Amino acid sequence: MISKASPPTHPVITCWITFWVLVCANVRADGPLMLIATGGRQETTHDGTTNPQRFPPHKWILIAPQSTFGATVTWECGPFQHVDLDGYLADVQLEVSVESRGANNAWGVLVPFDRTFVRHGNNQASVVAHSRHRGNAQVELHVTMLENEQGILASGDYEAVVIATITEN
Fold first, then answer.
1. Do 153 and 145 touch, CB atoms closer than 8 A?
2. pLDDT by residue (tens digit) across 53-85?
3. Could you tell me if residue 160 is left (phi over 0), alpha (psi between -120 and 50 degrees) or otherwise beta?
4. Per-residue DSSP letter, 121
5. 73, 75, 158, 162: which sits with the fewest CB atoms below 10 Å from its CB?
6. Domain contains 26
């Protein structure tokens, strides 16, 4: 048995991502902006290598109602953190792509890719989708655990929380 105080050389890590949704918008008579995360909590078991651990894509539905001049959605995430041991972090990478652009091809991606760089003090990654006018879209968010720069990780559970925010333009 390996003590949690001394990290193993070949970690067995269970990773998951938890999605929290924060909707920031004024409610209008014809309906609010909406941001819907489909599916639920995502989990994966680490493969025991230093390769990136990529989660399956997570689908989101973005809704900018008829009276708006479009909307902007930002997904933000800090590094993966060990749930029991402080100081054990692994970088996170976010990627967003638009699968369905909605009416008038309204939705696109402003910032398609970002990652944390814990070793260099960058502890926040964010990606952005944007619409020019009303319309709905479906996007995919890809989350990847990057650990090759951290060296050895402690065994146990790691968690990263993605927070999505939608605002009216």
1. no
2. 898 898 988 887 766 688 889 999 999 998 898
3. beta
4. T
5. 162
6. yes
